[in-house]
């Protein structure tokens, strides 16, 4: 700070730095969070045809199906000679009579609405994209020894090592926010499982890439962004008042939020 009158940017207010510079009031709240890839897990599943109905309903349907056939066999096998055939044929008859309730005349009231509801639910699951984060917890990443990215020349590296206990060998420095996309890409052999950075920076990235990535996990609170000045600079109080005036203007802050930080 001997060469400059001020540092203006996404400067995090940190206690260690306050020994050498004076910070203004924070102009933005901040915190450390994590972004990961999203995955469309349901549409890629081979068992998606079972998803429209719950497990309990599938089991109930199966039990009712078998019970109906058994009751028919119990009532008919003494009088009907067709029910006195070999065991395999009797078993086929049991299931045939149960199945007939779905396709013959008496199914006109029950079958159509059942088929309609099932088809509508399945079509909805196939057409509506349901994205899930690849990871939801940093501890899962740590247990598996996956690599994690962070913004180079920031306090994030020390925070990850000292407070979140990441192995330094698993940390990958990234120079700029646009580098996040390449670092998280599946085709990159040096890809990272997640990127931890300050929330405003992550929101700027998600503003343009929200369809592929999402923010997950807890947000670790920091003291926010501020402007830095040489110790005992008279400009600190002046800039702090200016920041206070802007942050108290709800309309202006909403405009800034929607323009730069809101994402889908």
UniProtKB/TrEMBL annotation:
It comes from the Eukaryota. Gene3D superfamilies: 1.10.287.70, Periplasmic binding protein-like II (3.40.190.10). The chain crosses the membrane at residues 57-75. One of its GO terms (cellular component) is membrane. PANTHER family: IONOTROPIC GLUTAMATE RECEPTOR (PTHR18966). Keywords: Glycoprotein, Ion channel, Ion transport, Ligand-gated ion channel, Membrane, Receptor, Transmembrane, Transmembrane helix, Transport. Its main location: membrane. The keyword Transmembrane applies. It is a multi-pass membrane protein. This is Putative ionotropic glutamate receptor, metazoa. It comes from Rosa chinensis. GO terms for molecular function: ligand-gated monoatomic ion channel activity. Residues 1-263 form the Ionotropic glutamate receptor C-terminal domain. It is found in: Membrane.
